[in-house]
TrEMBL record:
This is Outer membrane protein. The lineage of its organism: Bacteria, Pseudomonadati, Pseudomonadota, Gammaproteobacteria, Pseudomonadales. Residues 1-21 form the signal peptide. It comes from Marinobacter pelagius. InterPro entries: OMP_w_GlyGly. Keywords: Signal.
Length: 245
């Protein structure tokens, strides 16, 4: 498996944070993401279009986030995020074979993507304008299973896995005295032909400890693991509910 190495080299100055939380802060939220999927998967040199050939549809895209903020200088805040994506479909292989499955064969397919993020960040601004900068270590696991249903019984498995460092940034703008805010956050890396990005923008309403959020999320994965490669994009609206303390 190829390894990604991210050289930060001063593009994000994390050593000396400009602002810290005044008190301890803890929060968590869960969200549902209604995403559309497109792209290609390559297995040992043969490719398949996961939208047009496999007709994958979203079954469940769930996301869980928790964070811990503190007033201790130098030490970063911590954010953990887990995203699980499951898509299934029935389709037909195109004009070229895919991993031993013949052209025109009917297939059933399953795509599973799991992402576990550990993000270490600093609050650069902490008032009505909030800005966080940091680094994310993402554990990425992806698997595509394609089953030939025409009688040959051929089963193709394509897998990718890796721990990937990414730059992290989040900004939020609070509207005074309303509990309403707008913002966005994202993770990004591009290195040696591989690239990943994961962005979202949202509107948020807070009432006491309750936090309601709705927005749009886009995630792109272009990652090669030995002879297997996934070049896919997911995008669509999401809604979440959370608690902050």
């Amino acid at each position: 498996m190829r390894k990604l190495i991210l050289a930060v080299g001063g593009t994000v100055a994390l050593a000396t944070p400009l602002a810290n939380a005044d008190v301890l802060g803890v929060g968590a939220n869960v969200s549902y993401w209604d995403s559309d999927l497109s792209g290609d998967v390559v297995n040992k040199g043969s490719a398949v279009d996961i939208e047009n050939d496999l007709s994958l549809d979203s079954d469940s895209n769930a996301n869980f986030t928790a964070y811990f903020e503190h007033p201790v200088p130098v030490l970063p805040n911590v954010r953990v995020n887990y995203t699980t994506i499951s898509q299934t479909g029935s389709g037909r292989i195109g004009l070229e074979e895919f991993d031993g499955i013949l052209p025109g064969a009917s297939v059933d397919s399953e795509l599973d993507l799991d992402q576990l993020d550990a993000t270490f960040y600093y609050e650069v601004l902490d008032n009505w304008v909030n800005l966080d900068l940091g680094l994310t270590a993402r554990k990425l696991d992806g698997e595509l299973i394609v089953r030939d249903t025409t009688g040959t019984g051929r089963v193709s498995e394509t897998t990718i896995d890796g721990v990937i460092p990414m730059g992290y940034a989040a900004a939020r703008f609070d509207l005074p005295l309303t509990g309403v805010s707008v913002g966005g956050e994202g993770n990004l890396i591009s290195f040696d032909g591989d690239s990943l990005h994961d962005f979202n923008v949202y509107g948020q309403y807070e009432l006491s400890l309750l936090q309601l959020r709705a927005g749009y999320r886009q995630m792109s994965i272009d990652y090669e693991d030995d002879d297997d490669k996934m070049d896919v994009e997911l995008s669509g609206p999401f809604a979440s509910v959370g608690l902050t303390f």
